[in-house]
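Ligand-bound model needed. pyridoxal-5'-phosphate.
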Amino acid sequence: MKDNSYQGVMGRRNEIMKKAVGLNYEVFENPGIGFDYEKLMRETGYSLEEVQHIQAATGVGNTPLLELKNITALARKFSPEGKGARIMIKDEASNPSGSYKARRASAAVYHAKKLGYKGVIAATSGNYGAAVASQAAMLGLKCIIVQETYDSRTVGQPEIIEKARKCEALGAEVVQLSVGPELFYHFLLLLEETGYFNASLYTPYGIAGVETLGYEVIMQVREKYGKDPEVVVCTNAGGGNLTGTARGILKAGALDTQIVGASVDLSGLHMASDTAFNKKSFTTGHTGFGLPFTTWPDRTDVPRSAARPLRYMDRYLSVTQGEVFYITEALAQLEGIERGPAGNTSLVAAFGIAREMDQDAIIVVQETEYTGAGKHIQPQLSFARSNGIEVRYGDPKTQVPGVNIILPEHPSMIRGVDLDLRSIRTSLIKNAVKFSGATQVTPEDIEFLAVETRLKELEVEEILEELQVAYQKGGKS
Ligand SMILES: Cc1ncc(COP(=O)(O)O)c(C=O)c1O
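Prediction:
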């Protein structure tokens, strides 16, 4: 008889996980803090060509690139003379499950089938569940989605409820849980009982699946406009979207394209809190995931996350809930395209950045998802009101997440705010030292941390000094 108490199952965590992802992470570990990320991606992921082949077989990818001429014209109205870059979207809603997550799921589910697993399990509150369910249906595998659906009153956010229905519609069994630590326990127990594959969002297969997105963006912009885009904006939560896209952009040889992350500002709302659970109008692409995962990626359901956004980010902007609602409506009414909140988070950031850039510059926004019954503005705003959130017009920058939603009084107010990347990098270094338990940081560790944070080794040493962490000198400038 197995001990299925909380402690018992948690105690078997590593063993369960190893069996369920079919991957031994230990061989990629270096002594000390680091691990060989590129080796992990090279030896266990799929090449770009393999992913293209896998995705073509299930109708994933090759999504359209659309120019938003009317939104660009609106941005130019509030831009200095000669400014107002061309804004385009990469329309990921046309993937089979309605979001870019189909790219991640396609590689993960293909891999599960190749290894002979009978089914797949994913712990996710959203689009990824639908994507895994869709891919599992296509490849004839069973699918279980474990979802944090409700607060303790069994009240669920409209978007999360919609996504539970979508997963079920696509043939998955959805285990609906309330917010809290028992999700991981149930997830482990199900993996152990079924012997299914853990279609984690954070394996090398999943991230390799997103590389095609970045690669396609570059090829499409080159073909249509004869150059590389100046900026690509990616909505950032767990970091896989930005990481995979950036890797694809680099594989296309676009070395000068700036990679910008964007997240909705939900500061002050705790993600694991029962009372805060239904006070947010966004279920992904927000700072509640974006900041912790960027400053410490290895907090997922695999030992080393293949999503490492700080390696690729040139800028990181926060935007407000009210701004995203506004731009969602602007996209629908000016361009005739209704899309979901996650992608429109990036569109807000792009609307601000465009006004800093010359008119011949190109910004590509990842419009990462469809919209639907629960993601739409109306159910979200009604739900927010019924949870005591004030909704009004004003200056969106004066918002307090969980207290009010401020729709911009005028579109000129729509502009993201740059987050301080130096302090985000400092947090990553601090976390890396803390979680590794290192007492002395070696030159090899410094080399790893420099790549993790896109800093020079001497800059890492400077931060270690600020943090009062002992290290061996020798860093390169
Ligand atoms: C539609 C959509 N866009 C963007 C994101 C952000 O992706 P990531 O978590 O990899 O940063 C998500 C993740 O939940 C998503 O579902």
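The CA atoms of residues 381 and 418 lie 26 Å apart.
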